[in-house]
Specification:
Layout lengths: L4 H10 L3 E5 L8 H11 L3 E5 L24 E4 L3 H14 L3 E4 L6 H9 L3 E3 L4 H4 L6
Parallel strand pairs: 1-2, 1-3, 3-4, 4-5
Helix pairs in contact: 3-4
């Protein structure tokens, strides 16, 4: 298990509301598109991070985490597992408070590095599934 209920609750309720969604594009058939919309519905500010730097759900995009000119609380990762570790390392570098690897995104070494750096982390879960289940 890569996240306990308390860590999930903490990230979703008290870590902060600015979520960089890495891999988010304007393609509505991609999972990141729907997850970002759900996060917005629950009051999160989403920040699209994609090489194309597209505007998605009304929010301007950035080509990388390093390009975002304001603090990011949570980095939500929608890239292949073999690329996810580098994104987690970049999240640490930019001072994010938490990293969230989506369903199917697993990198145990990155999980250990990120936790050792003091960040909260969830791996192989989806915030759009978890957030509606939180008590209101």
């Amino acid at each position: 298990m890569y996240a306990d209920a308390e860590t999930i609750r903490k990230i979703l309720t008290s870590t902060g509301d600015t979520w960089a969604v890495v891999g988010l594009s304007s393609n509505p058939s991609r999972a990141a598109y729907g997850v970002a919309a759900t996060l917005q519905r629950f009051g999160k500010r989403i920040v699209p991070v994609h090489p194309k730097a597209e505007t998605v759900h009304g929010e301007p995009g950035y080509a990388s985490l390093a390009d975002i000119p304001f603090p990011v609380d949570v980095v939500d990762v929608f890239v292949n597992s073999d690329l996810a570790g580098a994104v987690a390392d970049e999240a640490v570098t930019i001072g994010a408070k938490a990293v969230w690897f989506q369903l199917g995104v697993i990198d145990e070494a990155a999980y250990a590095r990120t936790r050792a750096a003091g960040l909260s982390m969830v791996m192989d879960r989806c915030p759009a599934i978890e957030i509606p289940q939180l008590p209101r």
